[in-house]
Structure formats: C-alpha cells, structure tokens
Amino acid sequence: MDWTLVKDNWPAFIEVITARWPRTTQNDLIGIDGDRAQFTRYLAEKHALTPTEAEEEIGLWLEGPIPVDVATDEHHDNQSITESGRHIPEGEDVYSDDREFGDDNVAEPPLGRD
C-alpha cells in the first residue's frame, strides 16, 4: 500500500487501524482525516513511541495487504483489475479458453426433471 491509497480511503482504514493499534479511537482518527504527519504524532503519543518508531510502525503496516473494505470499493476496481494480472500463470493468456474449468460441461438434468 502507499499512503495516497490510505488518505483517499481513510474511513475504510479506521477500523483496521484501531484493530492494529488498540489505544487509538475512531473519533480521533476521523479528525486526523488521513494526514500522515498528524497520524504519526498521534500514534507516537497514544502508544508511547518516538516519532521515528511511530513512522517505522506505519511503514511496516503499509507493507501489508489492503483491507477488504478498500479493495472491494467500486473506486478501486480499475486498480484491482490491473493488479489481478500478476496472478496469471506464466505462459497463460488472459483470453485463454476456460471450458476446462467446468462451466461449459454442465450435465444434462435427470430424466423427467427440467
């Protein structure tokens, strides 16, 4: 993740932040509104960290996955689609025939049933 993503989707990150740093409160985080410098100072104060330690904690957190609330937000769709290309195995084309996955091989219904 990068901070721009966090700032642009701040409300979706509040619950994740309070779970990661339990001494933070939702009301305080709402007031911070994605300002990284203010969040760093707040985190340092609430968890008795130096500003450098707080910044390191934030950096480690940013290396983690994007919360589901953010990843499934409709404004994040194009980025998610672009990133999904990383999960296509080498040598496979995004337009490959998917019939072998079973969608097209549906069994006929039993006799007398529609």
Note down, in words, how this protein is organized:
The longest helix is centred in the middle third of the chain and has 12 residues, at 51-62. Helix 4 packs across helix 5. The chain has helices spanning 3-8, 10-20, 26-32, 36-46, 51-62, 68-71, 77-84. The protein has one domain (3-82). With 114 residues, it is an all-alpha fold. Residues 70-114 are annotated as: Disordered. Residues 91-106 have a biased composition (Acidic residues). InterPro entries: YjbJ_sf. Residues 72-90 have a biased composition (Basic and acidic residues).
| Pattern of helices and strands | HHHHHHH
Helix content, binned percent:
40-55%
The 3D shape can be described as elongated
What proportion strand?
A: under 5%
The separation of the N and C termini measures 50 Å
Report Rg.
22 Å
In the predicted model, the low-confidence regions spanning at least 5 consecutive residues are: none
Largest sheet: none
Mean pLDDT: 85
Number of domains: 1
Structural class: mainly alpha
Number of strands: 0
Number of helices: 7
